[in-house]
Amino acid sequence: GAIRLARERKGGAIRLARERKGGAIRFSMKGAYMTTGCVILAGGKSSRMGTDKALLTIDNTNFIKKLCTKFDFMEEKIIARGNRAEIAESTWSVIPDVYPNHGPIGGLHAALKSCQSDALFCVACDTPLIKPYVFWKMQEQMNTDIDAVIAVTEDGKYHPLCGVYKKHVADLMEEQIRKDMNRIMQVIKQIRVEYVQLHSIEDGLLNINTKEDYALYIKEMKL
Q1: Separation between Cα atoms, residue 103 and residue 185, nearest integer Å
Q2: Would you tell me how many other CB atoms lie within 10 Å of the CB of residue 149?
Q3: pLDDT tens track of the chain, all 223 residues?
Q4: What distance lies between CA 146 and its chain's CA centroid?
């Protein structure tokens, strides 16, 4: 049978519906349907950490496996591995960058180019504490008039690696990469974006980038 979830806002301005039919999750926005998958960006150099942060342990598993478990409900699931060795996750597609050595924009570009979905929810491997419901909060803001939905935390910081991007944004990303302009914020300034306010602690949008970040997390887990 079909699984259906619908939410109405006052005045009927925005309607979010989730349908699972024939193995796909579709979202309706003002009568138009789109499918959304997930990509985990796992190709970073971990230069500040000094070791491969994607494979650091958390709750008896590593960062990548933690995120794969959290977002396993998504239909299309991609891990952008960058230049790293193959990652074995049976239910996730693991892809290299089309243009290596360009940072996160290279991984997101590769995922958007290869995906079958109309859009992808992007999450970085150094945010293993992110809550799965963040996807729904962001997807709810997506509509036919915008190209991406990006997270903003209470300190005013933009988080371009936590967002929903439509597939066609890959074309602009490719133009930027070819010019060696590798900051995703440079792309965001040229597209139609909606921003979603999130809380870094409550919503789990804390980046674990350094040994100090990781040590603090381990210490708090033991309290």
Answers
A1: 13
A2: 23
A3: 232 333 333 333 333 445 544 444 566 565 567 899 999 998 766 555 556 666 777 778 788 899 999 999 999 999 998 766 666 667 899 999 999 999 999 999 999 999 999 999 999 988 888 999 999 999 999 988 999 999 999 999 999 999 999 999 999 999 999 999 999 999 999 999 999 999 988 998 877 777 787 777 666 555 4
A4: 17
Nearest to 14 by CA among 182, 186, 137, 164: 137
Closest CA to 110 of 185, 39, 182, 184: 39
Distance of alpha carbon 68 from alpha carbon 85, whole angstroms: 17
Give the chain's largest Cα–Cα span: 52
